C-alpha cells in the first residue's frame, strides 16, 4: 500500500486554498486548510500533525517563511515536508525560502502537473524519513533491551540508574539496590539443557517484573544475574520486599516442555539514602555484589544486606 500523508494547506486567499484542496482530494491526499499563519501553526502543534505543509508566503499572523523558521526550531522525530507557494519567483526569494527550512518551492499560479509531481516528491521523502525513524527506533530498542527476557540490558540499565539516583536525591526518596543471581544455574543448564535455561530466564524476567512496580528498575546484567532498584521507606521494608520476591521464586513452578524445574535465587542488597554523589552508583553495585557473595557463601536462596556483612 502506498505510504499516505496528510497535508496542510495554509493560504489567506480562500479561492487558491480551495483550488489546492480540490486537487489534493482528486489525488487521494487528505488535507486540512488554514487561512492564516496562526491557524497553520496551531495545526502543526497538534498531537498528530499533518506531515506535508503547503504554505503561502504572504499570510497574516505568520508568513510562510516565519512558519518555516518556527517549525524548524521544534525538535520533532518526524519533521514535516514544507512547500512554500508564492507569486514571487526571483532567485533571491527561492534561495531565502529554502535557507529558512523549506524543502521545496511552487510558484503561483499553480501548474497542476508540477504541483502534483512536487507533492509526490514530498510524499516519497516523508516515506523514507518514516522508515529511517522506524529503523532507528528498532535499533535503539535492540541496543537497550535483552532479547531473551525483554528487560533492560546492562549498559542501558546503568545509564538509567544515574537518572534514578538524581531523581531520588530531588524527591528525597530512599532506594533498595539489589543484585540477584539464580542458584546453580550451570547445573540447571547441564541437567535440562540450554533451552530450558533460556525458558527459566524468560519466566524469571516476567516474575521479577510482576513483583516490582512499573516505575522500579529491573534489568538483566549478566548471564543469570539481575539488578533491581526500587524506592522504599526504610531498610526493614526493603528486606521484606526482597524476602517476598525470594519466596515467590522458590514457590513458582518454572516449567519447560512439561517438566517442573526447581529454581531459587540469592540476593545481595544495600539500602541507600541518595545524596548528591551520584557517582556512588558503582559503590552501591559493589556493596550489593559483596552481599550477594555472602548469600552464596551461606548456602544460597538467601537475602543478605551489605550492612550485615561488613
Ligand atoms: Mg497570501
| Strand coverage percent | 15-25%
- What gyration radius follows from the Cα positions, in whole Å? 29 Å
Q: How much helix is in the residues? A: 40-55%
Strand arrangement across the biggest beta sheet:
2-1-3-4-5
**Ligand catalogue:** magnesium ion
CATH-level-4 superfamily name of the largest domain: Reverse transcriptase/Diguanylate cyclase domain
Provide the residue-averaged pLDDT: 93
Order of helices and strands: EHEHEHEHEHHEHHEEHEEEHE
Broad shape: elongated
CATH architecture of the largest domain: 2-Layer Sandwich
Tally of domains: 2
The number of helical elements comes to: 10
Tell me the span between the first and last alpha carbons.
Answer: 65 Å
Give the biggest sheet. 5 strands, parallel
CATH level-1 class of the largest domain:
Alpha Beta
Pfam family, one: Response_reg
Cofactor: Mg(2+)
InterPro entries: CheY-like_superfamily, Diguanylate_Cyclase, GGDEF_dom, Nucleotide_cyclase, Rev_trsase/Diguanyl_cyclase, Sig_transdc_resp-reg_receiver
Protein name: diguanylate cyclase
Summarize the structure.
The protein has 310 residues and is an alpha/beta fold. The protein has helices at 14-26, 37-44, 64-73, 91-99, 112-144, 154-171, 185-192, 194-211, 235-251, 281-297; strands spanning 6-10, 30-34, 52-56, 81-86, 104-107, 175-182, 217-220, 225-231, 254-256, 259-261, 265-272, 303-305.
Amino acid at each position: 500500500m502506498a505510504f499516505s500523508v496528510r497535508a496542510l494547506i495554509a493560504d489567506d486567499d480562500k479561492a487558491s486554498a480551495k483550488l489546492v484542496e480540490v486537487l489534493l482530494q482528486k489525488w487521494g491526499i487528505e488535507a486540512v486548510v488554514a487561512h492564516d499563519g496562526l491557524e497553520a501553526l496551531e495545526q502543526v502543534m497538534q498531537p498528530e500533525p499533518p506531515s506535508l505543509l503547503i504554505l503561502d508566503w504572504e499570510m497574516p499572523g505568520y508568513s510562510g517563511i516565519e512558519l518555516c523558521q518556527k517549525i524548524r526550531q521544534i525538535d520533532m522525530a518526524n519533521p514535516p515536508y514544507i512547500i512554500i507557494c508564492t507569486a514571487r519567483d526571483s532567485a533571491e526569494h527561492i534561495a531565502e525560502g529554502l535557507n529558512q527550512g523549506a524543502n521545496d518551492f511552487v510558484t503561483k499560479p499553480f501548474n497542476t502537473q508540477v504541483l502534483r509531481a512536487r507533492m509526490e516528491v514530498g510524499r516519497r521523502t516523508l516515506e523514507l524519513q518514516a522508515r529511517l525513524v522506524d529503523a532507528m527506533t528498532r535499533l535503539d530498542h535492540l541496543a537497550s533491551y535483552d532479547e531473551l527476557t525483554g528487560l533492560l540490558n546492562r549498559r542501558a540499565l546503568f545509564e538509567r540508574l544515574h537518572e534514578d539516583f538524581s531523581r531520588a536525591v530531588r524527591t528525597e526518596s530512599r532506594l533498595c539496590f539489589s543484585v540477584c543471581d539464580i542458584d546453580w544455574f550451570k547445573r540447571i543448564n547441564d541437567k535440562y539443557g540450554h533451552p530450558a535455561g533460556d525458558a527459566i530466564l524468560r519466566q524469571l524476567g516476567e516474575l521479577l517484573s510482576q513483583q516490582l512496580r512499573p516505575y522500579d528498575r529491573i534489568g538483566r546484567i549478566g548471564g543469570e544475574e539481575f539488578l533491581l532498584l526500587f524506592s522504599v521507606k526504610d531498610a526493614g521494608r526493603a528486606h521484606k520486599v526482597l524476602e517476598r520476591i525470594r519466596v515467590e521464586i522458590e514457590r513458582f513452578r518454572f516449567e519447560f516442555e512439561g517438566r517442573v524445574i526447581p529454581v531459587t535465587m540469592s540476593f545481595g542488597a544495600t539500602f541507600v539514602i541518595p545524596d548528591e554523589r551520584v557517582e556512588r552508583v558503582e559503590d552501591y553495585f559493589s556493596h550489593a555484589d559483596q552481599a550477594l557473595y555472602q548469600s552464596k557463601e551461606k548456602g544460597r536462596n538467601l537475602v543478605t544486606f551489605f550492612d550485615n556483612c561488613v
